[in-house]
Design brief:
The complex is a heterodimer of chains A (113) and B (114). Chain A has no helices and eleven strands. Chain A has strands spanning 5-7, 10-14, 19-24, 30-38, 45-50, 56-59, 62-67, 72-77, 86-94, 102-103, 107-112. The mean pLDDT of chain A is 94. Chain B is mainly β. Chain B is globular. In chain B, the strands form two sheets. In chain B, strands 2, 4, 5, 6, 9, 10 and 11 form a seven-stranded mixed beta sheet that branches. In chain B, strands 1-3-8-7 form a four-stranded antiparallel beta sheet, with no helix packed on it. Chain B has strands at residues 5-7, 10-13, 19-24, 31-37, 44-50, 53-57, 64-68, 74-78, 87-94, 104-105, 109-113. Chain B has no helices and eleven strands. Chain A binds chain B through residues 4, 32, 34, 36, 41-49, 51, 89, 91, 97-106, and chain B through 3-4, 31, 33, 35, 40-45, 48, 50, 55-58, 90, 99-108.
């Protein structure tokens, strides 16, 4: 993996469904993996910053896991609600990378009633 | 505490002109980063400023330049605008100790070059 890749590109689910997205990133020189939620016409909002292999973080109905050895992270949303509709971005940060974030193109989630 | 504020929200410029975008960082944050998001792409890192010095630069030409002021607010300047510079420009701030909590983003400036 040379770039940060996210899948799927878009997702439509029904209210109450649980869902998950994937973020793949280069595992060499890994420092941190960020997840952001970006609602239309608003600012990207930080969800999680994960640094340790095997790390698992949770915020309400949203959780994320991290595997730095194989270079992937999963974001899970349990019992999706319409207010979860947003684009979910992941970004990797590498050591010696000048503190820059390398973003994927995002997963666009639409939760329907 | 206030978040990150960017101005203007929208801007239309003609090819060849120059533009200045502004960003007020969140209170207590001393680091500002700028990103460009073209249509259908993820945000791309332009550069970062820490305590008024450039602290890392992405793959952007020298006509993209910046400043950070003593109050940690920042400007992004783009000279000789090209059509491909049309994009959403995002500013993000953080504290040097708070990097592990993520960056605080503004809502962006939408630049259209015609």
């Amino acid at each position: 993996i040379l770039n940060v890749e996210q899948s799927p590109q878009s997702l439509h689910v029904q209210e109450g469904d649980s869902t998950n997205f994937t973020c793949s990133f280069p595992s060499s020189n890994f420092y941190a993996l960020h997840w952001y939620r970006w609602e239309t016409a608003k600012s990207p909002e930080a969800l999680f910053v994960m640094t340790l292999n095997g790390d698992e973080k949770k915020k309400g109905r949203i959780s994320a896991t991290l595997n730095t050895k194989e270079g992937y992270s999963y974001l899970y949303i349990k019992g999706s609600q319409p207010e979860d509709s947003a684009t979910y971005l992941c970004a990797s940060e590498v050591t010696g990378g000048g503190n820059k974030l390398t973003f994927g193109t995002g997963t666009q989630l639409k939760v329907e009633l | 505490e206030t978040g990150v504020t960017q101005s203007p929200t929208h801007l239309i410029k003609t090819r060849g002109q120059q533009v200045t975008l502004r960003c007020s960082s969140q209170s207590g944050h001393n680091t500002v980063s700028w990103y460009q998001q073209a249509l259908g792409q993820g945000p791309q890192f332009i550069f970062q400023y820490y305590r008024e010095e450039e602290n890392g630069r992405g793959n952007f030409p020298p006509r993209f330049s910046g400043l950070q002021f003593p109050n940690y607010s920042s400007e992004l300047n783009v000279n000789a605008l090209e059509l491909d510079d049309s994009a959403l420009y995002l500013c993000a701030s953080s504290s040097s100790r708070g990097r592990n909590y993520g960056y605080t983003f503004g809502s962006g400036t939408r630049l259209t070059v015609v």
